[in-house]
Amino acid sequence: MDILRFSTAGSVDDGKSTLIGRLFYDSKSIFEDQMLQIEQTSKKRGSEIVNLAYLTDGLKDELEQGITIDVAYRYFSTPKRKFIIADTPGHIQYTRNMVTGASSSQLALILIDARNGISEQTKRHSLISSLLGIKHFVICINKMDLVDFKQSVYEKIVSDYENFAAKLRVSSFSFIPISALLGDNVVTRSAQMPWYQGSTLFNFLETVSIASDQNLIDSRFSVQNIIRPNTNEWHDFRGIAGMVLGGVFRKGDEITCYPSGFKTKIKDIYLANEQINQAISSLSCTFLLEDDIDVSRGDMLVKSSSSIHVLQEFDVMLCWMGDEPLSLSGKYILKHTTNETKAMIKELKYKMDVHTLSRDFESKEIARNDIAKISLKTAKPIFFDKYYENRLTGSCILIDIHTNITVGACMIV
Q1: Which residue among 13, 48, 131, 253 is least enclosed by CB atoms within 10 Å?
Q2: Is 159 helix (H, G, I), strand (E, B) or coil?
């Protein structure tokens, strides 16, 4: 059974948390004690109906303000698929939290309030989701009950969004008119919207194809640690522990270690104490190599039949999350996979206009929540793929060298 990771995004009060609660409730994925707690919280806060948003809004400030602040993860499964949901905040000041939730998602669920249409946050979250390499978008026009389920309202929003999203790098868009509060077109088809003949949201999530999203060709292994048990049973064991970030590794494969360039072969692959014949993407395991070459944390093992970029200067698309503006020519710590190095901003190429998706070449200041293309120069070579070829080896973060706070999320282009 495969796993679908998806994030919810959109403006404040578009109904993201309510929609997730409705998905759980209608699919019978809420435990009795959870439902009892939601009912008690709803009653205590004077809600006339059971507020399903309380399933994900767990922080005190979230309950008091009725908004999402931090990323809330929820898990459920059906006979067809397992799901990991990231409920991300809509407020502009919590864009960094939205980036965190969307960074590991395969599908973006964008909510739009039918009364208000496309907002600035709709555009911002769509752009960020696209930059983060999410290939599948489902656009839910929510609160259709508040516009009398009018088809004309739905079609106007679909047209506006398609015009905006024409420049986004996304494989597929799907549009569904829903009422998260009442459950229309969430799990069961709505009797109020007979003019809509498409799939319900639940059916769409169960059937959307994600099999081709992973890079299964370029084999990458990020080294995290060297395993030396020094016991009688494992006296001479020297394992290279880490995670497969792409492709497939098998016993006997010839690999190249970066940055040294030394070549060797995989002698054995261990998953805990068990030997396995192959390691696939996202698997944490241990390699035993035929030769005792110098390998340490931060290195990358690559199947010799595939190439990887090894550079000290490269361009990235940057989502700036720092409270202070980006310091041009400033120095930061760049963290890429398990590798860390000092980096400096070499050049600001342009800033993105989230409204029109045009490029602003004149602006010289990047403030919080801005998106820009910049050039970086690192103190030592980085071994990477382009982000759109491999999200795991094409992403990195910038850390403030003085405060140790993460201030930027980068997609290598």
Answers
A1: 48
A2: helix
pLDDT of residue 94: 60
Nearest residue to 281 (alpha-carbon basis) of 223, 218, 209: 218
Q: Which pLDDT score, from 0 to 100, does residue 87 have?
A: 78
pLDDT along the chain (413 residues), means of 10: 84 77 78 70 66 57 44 79 80 68 86 91 86 89 95 96 86 90 91 94 90 80 91 82 94 94 95 92 93 92 92 94 88 95 95 84 90 94 92 94 92 93
Q: Which of 169, 170, 191 is nearest to 179 (CA)?
A: 191
User: In the sheet where 72-77 sits, what is the strand order?
Assistant: 72-77, 82-87, 3-10, 107-113, 136-142, 172-177
- Mapped to the 3 state alphabet, what secondary structure does 194-247 carry? CCCCCCCHHHHHHHCCCCCCCCCCCCEEEEEEEECCCCCCCCCCCEEEEEEEEC
Task: Retrieve residue 237's tokens.
Answer: 């064991």
DSSP 3-state of 371: strand
Strands 359-360 and 371-384, sheet pairing: unpaired
One-letter amino acid at 97 equals N
Residue 293 tokens read as 């070459």
* 370-373 own/partner pairs: CB under 8 Å, 24+ apart: 370/320, 370/326, 371/127, 371/128, 371/131, 371/317, 371/318, 371/319, 371/320, 372/317, 372/318, 372/320, 372/326, 372/348, 373/315, 373/316, 373/317, 373/318, 373/348, 373/349, 373/413
- The Cα–Cα gap between 115 and 10 comes to 14
Distances (CA, A) of 238 to 253, 271, 404: 18, 14, 33
pLDDT at 9: 82
Joined tokens for residue 323? 């409270």
Q: Which tokens in the block code for residue 18?
A: 């309510």
pTM for the complete prediction? Answer: 0.79
CB neighbours of residue 191 within 10 Å: 8
Parallel, antiparallel or unpaired: strands 107-113 and 3-10: parallel
- What is the Cβ-side half-sphere exposure of residue 189, based on CA atoms within 13 angstroms? 8
**Quick check: 266 and 252 in contact, CB under 8 A?**
yes
Round to whole Å and give the CA distance between 103 and 291.
36
Per-residue model confidence (pLDDT) at position 176: 96
| pLDDT computed for residue 264 by the predictor | 96
- Write the CA distances from 137 to 105, 169, 220, integer angstroms: 11, 11, 28
What is the spatial distance between Cα 229 and Cα 208, in angstroms, rounded to a whole number? Answer: 44
> In the numeric block, which tokens belong to residue 284?
């944490």
